[in-house]
Amino acid sequence: MPPAAIELSADCSDLVASPGLLIEPDSQDSGSDSAGDSATTRSLTSSVFKHVEENGRKYHRYREGSYVFPNDELENERLDLQYELLKFVFGGKAYYAPITNPKKILDIGTGTGMWPIEMGESPHPLITIFEVRINLFCSGGVPEVRSRFYKELVYEITSTDWKHQITGTDLSPIQPDWVPDNVHFVIDDAAEDDWLYPPSSFDYIHTRVLLGCFEDFRTIIAKGFRYTKPGGWMESQEWFPSVYCDDATMFPDWPFAEWSKYSDDAAMRLGRPLRIANKLKRWYEEAGFVDVHEEVYKMPLNPWPKDQRYKNIGHMQEMNWIDGLQAFSLALFHRVLGWSKNEIEVYLIDVRKALRDRGVHAYQKAYVGLHPSHHHV
After folding, report:
1. Pick from 167, 152, 75: which is nearest to 119 by CA?
2. pLDDT tier at 342 (50, 70, 90 boundaries)?
Protein backbone atom coordinates (compact mmCIF):
# COMPACT_ATOMS: atom_id res chain seq x y z
CA MET A 1 0.00 0.00 0.00
CA PRO A 2 1.45 3.40 -0.95
CA PRO A 3 2.15 5.91 1.83
CA ALA A 4 -0.58 8.40 2.63
CA ALA A 5 -0.42 11.65 0.72
CA ILE A 6 0.91 14.57 2.73
CA GLU A 7 0.16 18.25 2.41
CA LEU A 8 3.35 20.22 1.95
CA SER A 9 3.83 23.49 3.74
CA ALA A 10 3.98 26.76 1.84
CA ASP A 11 7.76 26.81 2.21
CA CYS A 12 8.62 23.42 0.79
CA SER A 13 11.90 24.02 -1.01
CA ASP A 14 13.49 21.31 1.12
CA LEU A 15 10.72 18.86 0.30
CA VAL A 16 10.70 19.37 -3.46
CA ALA A 17 13.93 17.44 -3.61
CA SER A 18 12.37 14.35 -2.00
CA PRO A 19 10.96 12.19 -4.81
CA GLY A 20 9.55 9.67 -2.34
CA LEU A 21 6.96 12.16 -1.11
CA LEU A 22 3.52 12.18 -2.66
CA ILE A 23 2.11 15.46 -3.96
CA GLU A 24 -1.49 16.02 -2.91
CA PRO A 25 -3.79 17.00 -5.81
CA ASP A 26 -6.01 20.05 -5.61
CA SER A 27 -9.56 18.73 -5.35
CA GLN A 28 -10.87 22.14 -6.45
CA ASP A 29 -9.07 21.96 -9.81
CA SER A 30 -9.48 18.55 -11.43
CA GLY A 31 -10.83 19.47 -14.86
CA SER A 32 -9.06 20.39 -18.06
CA ASP A 33 -7.78 23.82 -19.04
CA SER A 34 -8.85 24.72 -22.55
CA ALA A 35 -6.33 27.53 -22.98
CA GLY A 36 -4.89 28.03 -26.46
CA ASP A 37 -2.79 25.72 -27.99
CA SER A 38 39.82 25.09 -32.86
CA ALA A 39 39.45 23.61 -36.41
CA THR A 40 35.95 22.93 -35.31
CA THR A 41 35.15 26.31 -33.77
CA ARG A 42 34.31 29.17 -36.09
CA SER A 43 34.12 32.90 -35.76
CA LEU A 44 30.70 34.48 -36.25
CA THR A 45 30.86 34.64 -40.05
CA SER A 46 27.80 34.69 -42.27
CA SER A 47 27.94 30.90 -42.74
CA VAL A 48 27.47 30.30 -39.03
CA PHE A 49 24.34 32.44 -39.04
CA LYS A 50 22.73 30.40 -41.83
CA HIS A 51 20.03 27.94 -40.91
CA VAL A 52 18.18 24.92 -42.27
CA GLU A 53 14.41 25.15 -42.65
CA GLU A 54 12.26 22.04 -42.31
CA ASN A 55 8.51 21.70 -41.78
CA GLY A 56 8.23 25.40 -41.04
CA ARG A 57 10.89 25.49 -38.31
CA LYS A 58 14.53 26.64 -38.42
CA TYR A 59 17.48 24.49 -37.34
CA HIS A 60 21.20 25.12 -36.95
CA ARG A 61 23.51 24.91 -40.00
CA TYR A 62 26.83 24.40 -38.19
CA ARG A 63 27.24 20.67 -37.51
CA GLU A 64 23.87 20.21 -39.20
CA GLY A 65 21.70 17.45 -37.72
CA SER A 66 23.64 16.95 -34.50
CA TYR A 67 20.97 18.88 -32.56
CA VAL A 68 17.43 17.86 -33.48
CA PHE A 69 15.50 20.75 -31.98
CA PRO A 70 14.84 24.15 -33.61
CA ASN A 71 16.83 27.31 -32.97
CA ASP A 72 14.22 29.83 -34.14
CA GLU A 73 12.57 32.61 -32.16
CA LEU A 74 9.68 30.43 -30.97
CA GLU A 75 12.07 27.91 -29.49
CA ASN A 76 14.33 30.57 -28.02
CA GLU A 77 11.37 32.05 -26.15
CA ARG A 78 10.52 28.60 -24.84
CA LEU A 79 14.12 28.01 -23.74
CA ASP A 80 13.94 31.22 -21.72
CA LEU A 81 10.75 30.00 -20.07
CA GLN A 82 12.33 26.62 -19.36
CA TYR A 83 15.24 28.38 -17.70
CA GLU A 84 12.87 30.24 -15.39
CA LEU A 85 10.96 27.04 -14.66
CA LEU A 86 14.06 25.18 -13.52
CA LYS A 87 15.32 28.14 -11.54
CA PHE A 88 11.99 28.23 -9.73
CA VAL A 89 12.25 24.49 -9.04
CA PHE A 90 15.75 25.04 -7.65
CA GLY A 91 14.57 27.78 -5.30
CA GLY A 92 16.33 30.53 -7.25
CA LYS A 93 19.71 28.81 -7.32
CA ALA A 94 21.81 29.08 -10.46
CA TYR A 95 24.18 26.38 -9.20
CA TYR A 96 24.71 24.03 -6.26
CA ALA A 97 28.48 23.61 -6.21
CA PRO A 98 30.15 25.46 -3.30
CA ILE A 99 32.32 27.54 -5.60
CA THR A 100 34.10 30.53 -4.09
CA ASN A 101 35.77 33.25 -6.13
CA PRO A 102 35.95 31.31 -9.42
CA LYS A 103 38.07 32.95 -12.12
CA LYS A 104 37.01 30.97 -15.19
CA ILE A 105 33.60 29.36 -15.76
CA LEU A 106 32.40 27.33 -18.76
CA ASP A 107 28.77 26.74 -19.72
CA ILE A 108 28.36 23.92 -22.27
CA GLY A 109 25.32 24.10 -24.55
CA THR A 110 24.49 27.61 -23.39
CA GLY A 111 21.42 28.05 -25.61
CA THR A 112 20.11 31.61 -25.36
CA GLY A 113 22.82 32.44 -22.84
CA MET A 114 20.62 33.25 -19.85
CA TRP A 115 22.71 31.29 -17.37
CA PRO A 116 26.06 32.98 -18.20
CA ILE A 117 24.41 36.39 -18.29
CA GLU A 118 22.94 36.00 -14.81
CA MET A 119 26.17 34.48 -13.50
CA GLY A 120 28.03 37.43 -14.92
CA GLU A 121 25.96 39.95 -12.99
CA SER A 122 26.46 40.82 -9.34
CA PRO A 123 24.30 38.89 -6.83
CA HIS A 124 21.88 41.68 -5.88
CA PRO A 125 20.52 42.41 -9.39
CA LEU A 126 20.20 38.66 -9.92
CA ILE A 127 17.74 38.39 -7.05
CA THR A 128 15.68 41.24 -8.48
CA ILE A 129 15.64 39.74 -11.97
CA PHE A 130 14.57 36.34 -10.66
CA GLU A 131 11.77 37.59 -8.44
CA VAL A 132 10.25 40.00 -10.96
CA ARG A 133 10.57 37.70 -13.96
CA ILE A 134 9.09 34.72 -12.14
CA ASN A 135 6.05 36.83 -11.30
CA LEU A 136 5.75 37.79 -14.95
CA PHE A 137 5.96 34.19 -16.16
CA CYS A 138 3.48 32.93 -13.58
CA SER A 139 1.03 35.64 -14.59
CA GLY A 140 1.00 34.27 -18.13
CA GLY A 141 2.73 37.16 -19.88
CA VAL A 142 3.05 36.75 -23.64
CA PRO A 143 6.53 35.76 -24.95
CA GLU A 144 7.18 39.08 -26.68
CA VAL A 145 6.49 40.99 -23.46
CA ARG A 146 8.63 38.58 -21.42
CA SER A 147 11.57 38.99 -23.78
CA ARG A 148 11.33 42.80 -23.95
CA PHE A 149 10.95 43.04 -20.18
CA TYR A 150 14.07 40.93 -19.66
CA LYS A 151 16.13 43.04 -22.03
CA GLU A 152 15.05 46.22 -20.28
CA LEU A 153 16.05 44.77 -16.92
CA VAL A 154 19.48 43.75 -18.17
CA TYR A 155 20.11 47.17 -19.64
CA GLU A 156 19.36 48.75 -16.26
CA ILE A 157 21.98 46.67 -14.43
CA THR A 158 25.51 47.97 -14.10
CA SER A 159 28.61 46.49 -12.55
CA THR A 160 32.10 47.89 -12.28
CA ASP A 161 34.39 45.17 -10.95
CA TRP A 162 34.36 41.99 -13.04
CA LYS A 163 36.45 39.34 -11.29
CA HIS A 164 35.45 36.21 -13.20
CA GLN A 165 35.19 35.28 -16.87
CA ILE A 166 32.31 33.16 -18.16
CA THR A 167 32.31 31.43 -21.53
CA GLY A 168 29.18 29.89 -23.05
CA THR A 169 29.48 27.48 -25.98
CA ASP A 170 26.79 26.37 -28.40
CA LEU A 171 26.23 25.27 -32.00
CA SER A 172 23.88 28.20 -32.69
CA PRO A 173 24.61 31.96 -32.44
CA ILE A 174 21.29 32.71 -30.74
CA GLN A 175 22.70 34.58 -27.75
CA PRO A 176 22.00 38.31 -27.25
CA ASP A 177 24.44 41.16 -27.78
CA TRP A 178 23.50 42.87 -24.50
CA VAL A 179 25.77 40.91 -22.15
CA PRO A 180 28.07 41.80 -19.26
CA ASP A 181 31.69 42.51 -20.16
CA ASN A 182 32.85 39.31 -18.48
CA VAL A 183 30.57 37.03 -20.53
CA HIS A 184 31.62 35.64 -23.91
CA PHE A 185 29.90 33.27 -26.33
CA VAL A 186 31.71 30.88 -28.66
CA ILE A 187 30.34 28.68 -31.43
CA ASP A 188 31.82 25.29 -30.62
CA ASP A 189 30.89 21.61 -30.64
CA ALA A 190 31.57 20.07 -27.22
CA ALA A 191 31.44 16.62 -28.83
CA GLU A 192 34.85 17.21 -30.43
CA ASP A 193 37.81 15.44 -28.86
CA ASP A 194 39.58 18.64 -27.89
CA TRP A 195 38.08 21.87 -26.65
CA LEU A 196 39.62 25.29 -27.24
CA TYR A 197 41.40 25.49 -23.92
CA PRO A 198 44.41 23.97 -22.18
CA PRO A 199 43.69 21.19 -19.67
CA SER A 200 42.77 22.29 -16.14
CA SER A 201 41.49 25.66 -17.36
CA PHE A 202 38.22 26.09 -15.47
CA ASP A 203 37.22 26.48 -11.85
CA TYR A 204 33.66 25.46 -12.65
CA ILE A 205 31.98 23.75 -15.63
CA HIS A 206 28.19 23.80 -15.95
CA THR A 207 25.71 21.88 -18.10
CA ARG A 208 21.92 22.05 -18.08
CA VAL A 209 19.24 20.13 -20.02
CA LEU A 210 21.46 18.48 -22.64
CA LEU A 211 19.38 15.32 -23.08
CA GLY A 212 19.37 14.26 -26.72
CA CYS A 213 22.33 16.50 -27.57
CA PHE A 214 25.15 13.95 -27.58
CA GLU A 215 25.70 10.36 -28.64
CA ASP A 216 27.41 9.59 -25.33
CA PHE A 217 27.28 12.15 -22.53
CA ARG A 218 29.99 10.21 -20.69
CA THR A 219 32.51 11.71 -23.12
CA ILE A 220 31.42 15.21 -22.11
CA ILE A 221 31.91 14.36 -18.44
CA ALA A 222 35.34 12.86 -19.17
CA LYS A 223 36.40 16.00 -21.02
CA GLY A 224 34.99 18.08 -18.21
CA PHE A 225 37.27 16.22 -15.83
CA ARG A 226 40.22 17.02 -18.08
CA TYR A 227 39.44 20.74 -18.39
CA THR A 228 38.51 21.37 -14.75
CA LYS A 229 41.22 22.64 -12.41
CA PRO A 230 42.29 20.49 -9.46
CA GLY A 231 39.85 21.32 -6.70
CA GLY A 232 37.35 22.71 -9.22
CA TRP A 233 33.80 21.58 -9.84
CA MET A 234 31.62 20.31 -12.65
CA GLU A 235 27.84 20.30 -12.32
CA SER A 236 24.97 18.96 -14.44
CA GLN A 237 21.32 19.86 -14.01
CA GLU A 238 19.27 17.55 -16.15
CA TRP A 239 15.69 16.81 -17.14
CA PHE A 240 14.46 13.20 -16.97
CA PRO A 241 11.66 12.79 -19.56
CA SER A 242 9.94 9.68 -18.17
CA VAL A 243 6.43 10.29 -16.79
CA TYR A 244 5.47 9.24 -13.24
CA CYS A 245 2.24 9.04 -11.28
CA ASP A 246 1.81 8.04 -7.61
CA ASP A 247 -1.96 7.61 -7.38
CA ALA A 248 -3.00 5.55 -10.44
CA THR A 249 -4.73 8.48 -12.15
CA MET A 250 -2.51 8.03 -15.23
CA PHE A 251 -3.82 5.21 -17.39
CA PRO A 252 -1.40 3.08 -19.47
CA ASP A 253 -2.28 4.62 -22.84
CA TRP A 254 -2.40 8.23 -21.63
CA PRO A 255 -1.47 10.24 -24.76
CA PHE A 256 1.45 12.17 -23.26
CA ALA A 257 2.99 8.99 -21.83
CA GLU A 258 2.63 7.40 -25.27
CA TRP A 259 4.24 10.45 -26.89
CA SER A 260 7.15 10.16 -24.45
CA LYS A 261 7.74 6.57 -25.52
CA TYR A 262 7.68 7.51 -29.21
CA SER A 263 10.16 10.36 -28.71
CA ASP A 264 12.42 8.20 -26.57
CA ASP A 265 12.40 5.45 -29.22
CA ALA A 266 13.20 7.93 -32.00
CA ALA A 267 16.06 9.47 -30.02
CA MET A 268 17.55 6.03 -29.30
CA ARG A 269 17.37 5.11 -32.99
CA LEU A 270 19.10 8.37 -33.82
CA GLY A 271 21.80 7.57 -31.28
CA ARG A 272 21.12 10.59 -29.07
CA PRO A 273 19.46 9.24 -25.92
CA LEU A 274 17.12 11.34 -23.80
CA ARG A 275 17.17 9.32 -20.57
CA ILE A 276 20.57 10.31 -19.18
CA ALA A 277 19.73 12.17 -15.97
CA ASN A 278 19.44 9.11 -13.74
CA LYS A 279 22.86 7.87 -14.88
CA LEU A 280 24.87 11.04 -14.30
CA LYS A 281 25.97 10.27 -10.74
CA ARG A 282 27.48 6.94 -11.79
CA TRP A 283 29.07 8.44 -14.89
CA TYR A 284 30.69 11.22 -12.86
CA GLU A 285 32.16 8.70 -10.46
CA GLU A 286 33.44 6.54 -13.31
CA ALA A 287 35.13 9.59 -14.86
CA GLY A 288 37.16 10.14 -11.68
CA PHE A 289 35.17 12.79 -9.83
CA VAL A 290 34.87 12.28 -6.09
CA ASP A 291 32.30 13.23 -3.44
CA VAL A 292 29.52 13.18 -6.04
CA HIS A 293 26.17 14.47 -4.81
CA GLU A 294 22.72 14.16 -6.35
CA GLU A 295 19.29 15.63 -5.70
CA VAL A 296 16.04 14.76 -7.45
CA TYR A 297 13.06 17.09 -7.83
CA LYS A 298 9.47 16.38 -8.82
CA MET A 299 7.92 18.62 -11.47
CA PRO A 300 4.13 18.28 -11.96
CA LEU A 301 3.06 18.45 -15.60
CA ASN A 302 0.25 20.93 -14.94
CA PRO A 303 -1.24 22.79 -11.93
CA TRP A 304 -2.96 19.72 -10.44
CA PRO A 305 -1.25 19.86 -6.99
CA LYS A 306 -2.84 21.49 -3.96
CA ASP A 307 0.43 22.92 -2.66
CA GLN A 308 0.97 26.37 -4.17
CA ARG A 309 4.65 25.89 -4.92
CA TYR A 310 4.02 22.68 -6.84
CA LYS A 311 1.02 24.33 -8.50
CA ASN A 312 3.26 27.16 -9.75
CA ILE A 313 5.75 24.62 -11.07
CA GLY A 314 2.85 22.87 -12.80
CA HIS A 315 1.69 26.11 -14.43
CA MET A 316 5.15 26.70 -15.86
CA GLN A 317 5.57 23.03 -16.87
CA GLU A 318 2.30 23.07 -18.76
CA MET A 319 3.23 26.28 -20.56
CA ASN A 320 6.68 24.91 -21.39
CA TRP A 321 5.28 21.68 -22.83
CA ILE A 322 2.42 23.26 -24.76
CA ASP A 323 4.80 25.84 -26.26
CA GLY A 324 7.47 23.26 -27.07
CA LEU A 325 5.63 20.09 -28.05
CA GLN A 326 5.86 20.74 -31.78
CA ALA A 327 9.56 21.62 -31.52
CA PHE A 328 10.26 18.41 -29.58
CA SER A 329 8.37 16.29 -32.09
CA LEU A 330 8.95 17.47 -35.65
CA ALA A 331 12.52 16.40 -36.37
CA LEU A 332 12.45 13.16 -34.37
CA PHE A 333 9.08 11.98 -35.65
CA HIS A 334 9.71 13.12 -39.25
CA ARG A 335 13.37 12.18 -39.77
CA VAL A 336 13.44 9.01 -37.68
CA LEU A 337 9.88 7.65 -37.52
CA GLY A 338 8.94 8.78 -41.02
CA TRP A 339 5.78 10.71 -40.09
CA SER A 340 4.57 13.60 -42.23
CA LYS A 341 4.11 17.04 -40.69
CA ASN A 342 0.34 16.70 -41.00
CA GLU A 343 0.40 13.32 -39.23
CA ILE A 344 2.47 14.80 -36.43
CA GLU A 345 0.22 17.83 -35.97
CA VAL A 346 -2.93 15.70 -35.86
CA TYR A 347 -1.32 13.33 -33.35
CA LEU A 348 -0.28 16.20 -31.08
CA ILE A 349 -3.87 17.42 -30.63
CA ASP A 350 -4.67 14.67 -28.13
CA VAL A 351 -1.24 15.00 -26.51
CA ARG A 352 -1.91 18.67 -25.76
CA LYS A 353 -5.33 17.82 -24.37
CA ALA A 354 -3.71 15.25 -22.09
CA LEU A 355 -1.18 17.77 -20.82
CA ARG A 356 -4.04 20.05 -19.70
CA ASP A 357 -5.97 17.30 -17.90
CA ARG A 358 -5.93 18.16 -14.18
CA GLY A 359 -7.41 14.76 -13.36
CA VAL A 360 -4.15 13.00 -14.26
CA HIS A 361 -1.61 13.60 -11.49
CA ALA A 362 1.53 13.08 -13.52
CA TYR A 363 4.99 14.53 -13.03
CA GLN A 364 8.55 14.34 -14.31
CA LYS A 365 11.86 14.55 -12.49
CA ALA A 366 14.83 16.88 -12.61
CA TYR A 367 18.16 15.50 -11.49
CA VAL A 368 19.96 18.54 -10.23
CA GLY A 369 22.80 19.65 -8.04
CA LEU A 370 25.27 17.10 -9.36
CA HIS A 371 28.22 18.97 -7.93
CA PRO A 372 31.15 16.58 -7.58
CA SER A 373 34.31 17.80 -5.98
CA HIS A 374 37.14 17.18 -8.43
CA HIS A 375 40.66 16.15 -7.44
CA HIS A 376 43.39 14.89 -9.72
CA VAL A 377 45.13 11.84 -8.28
Report:
1. 167
2. very high
